Request: fold
Amino acid sequence: MSTVRREGRQSVVFEDPPVILGSAAIGGPFEGQGPLADSFDQVAEDELLGASSFERAECLFLERAVELALKKAHLTAQQIQHFLAGDLLDQMVTSNFAARRLGIPYWGIYGACSTSALGLQLGAMLVAGELAEYVVSATASHHLAAERQYRFPVELGVQRNPTAQWTATGGSAFVLGRGKNGVRLTAATVGVVQDLGLKDPNNMGAAMAPAAADTLSHHFEDLGTKPADYDLILTGDLGRVGHPLAREILKEHHLDLGEHFDDCGIMLYRPQQDVHAGGSGTACSGMVAASWLQHRLQSGELRRVLFVATGALHSPTTYQQGESIPCVAQAIVLEAAQEAKR
Amino acid sequence: MSTVRREGRQSVVFEDPPVILGSAAIGGPFEGQGPLADSFDQVAEDELLGASSFERAECLFLERAVELALKKAHLTAQQIQHFLAGDLLDQMVTSNFAARRLGIPYWGIYGACSTSALGLQLGAMLVAGELAEYVVSATASHHLAAERQYRFPVELGVQRNPTAQWTATGGSAFVLGRGKNGVRLTAATVGVVQDLGLKDPNNMGAAMAPAAADTLSHHFEDLGTKPADYDLILTGDLGRVGHPLAREILKEHHLDLGEHFDDCGIMLYRPQQDVHAGGSGTACSGMVAASWLQHRLQSGELRRVLFVATGALHSPTTYQQGESIPCVAQAIVLEAAQEAKR
Reply:
């Protein structure tokens, strides 16, 4: 008998929940000046980590996060059956090159900035379905690699739009498996792509807000829960523009997200860090979930969190061709470790 | 009790196998001049399908393949729980935009030209693990979109290298689920990335051959099978350079692949079509598997096939930065429908 219960079309409930055996987050130097720096496992001293390019450095952030998470889980790469990873670079080379180094059977996954939650969903399903004993899921992004790929090399000094978000530099990784200890993955809601016709890549928060709202409302409907059933609903990364918009959209659906509604893109940087609308990038929600959030779930300070990572699924090519920006949001419920103190 | 048996680190056996409820392949006009054209569901009359760009056309190939496969499976998009899709364009926009149109809960998957088998592996696991009732897995590629992204716009008329492969134009889709009829997915072997240091993107067959050999040898070891246990071992897409190399590498491991060893990249075009080393692209192996191979498994002409799609996981950026080409191969065993005549 399966220990997985399907609810509605988009959701599954894990009745014998997989757990997070280890997680790690490594921030870039600028992220190390942010309010969550103390919860990171490491903060890089420079943007390059000794590599010859920003793209190679992004790969190092990913590899190091995986190695740290494995160490915390007391496992080696050889014991892992699936490496699930994704990033923002063309053809996902960060993940591909990390997979080459790690030597773990590999599937690339793509959901732009929603990839962190996608990896947790898929990893939890593989463990719950007894398809794997141990899975590693990881993401990374690099501000300087993303800027020159998506927009302009930062050396040009092009002025940023006030609604623009700041691609985070860093890496995050989770090791999933079975165990009595560890934060539990108890349910997942897979997102349907939403597109309300917004075309401005300098305002991705507004483009992504409807996707977050859609996945959230389906999650509550499928599971028969309401916002108050969660200690925290954490989107990532809608930023300062998209986050209030998601709240507004859900209000129209008679869902009040209340006080315990936050966003990884808002949390990652201090207001005076001048990132405009907040953080973004595959690493942004991954880093917050793998560090700050893990600590609070491990301690029992938070008991039940709905983590909803959002992604803008466009490319520079589709933007230049005049297309709008399809977006998706992937949700996963994280519950405090059983041994956690109340 | 799970109906999935893990074998070794890389393989799973589906003891109650998911089946292919419907599949479809749509070829471009050039692919329609190839030897497999009769087995395609549709051949496009032109490269654009009425779209304003090659990139938009690629998306139409994907959407139409999915719609046809759903029709054959007597299912609607609304009945599907997971849409798994991948392609070669930056940020996987073909798949993302198709997901927007189809409205099925979506995960992007990336394995370059191995994506077709990755989708079958993951889809089979989701069905076998009771995580989904119905899954659609799909891929597409477009010669004219890929050339201008990876190499040069074809309008430039740059001469192609004799070892270069030809990115196929087309789309392919599979609908997976439970059923007594239909080709069965009985085992999967997930690939580990291999990289022997080759750096020439105009000779990807040679770069991918070691990955194919590695996944094949692990498959035989994990399952305790030998090449002669399969009516056909079908790689995709090593082409005329990579395919004999994979045979050579396996010979060194005392594995003789015998006569029943073929390659989607070699099969897709006629020698006089001047594609040099053969076909490639996410659609290449997908189209062959969704049409020619399906027909032979449905009729019982082939009983048990090991399908091993190969992917080169580089990008134009990594090539320009002097990196070598990491490659992966994903394997899945397809067995004749139970009702198939011998």
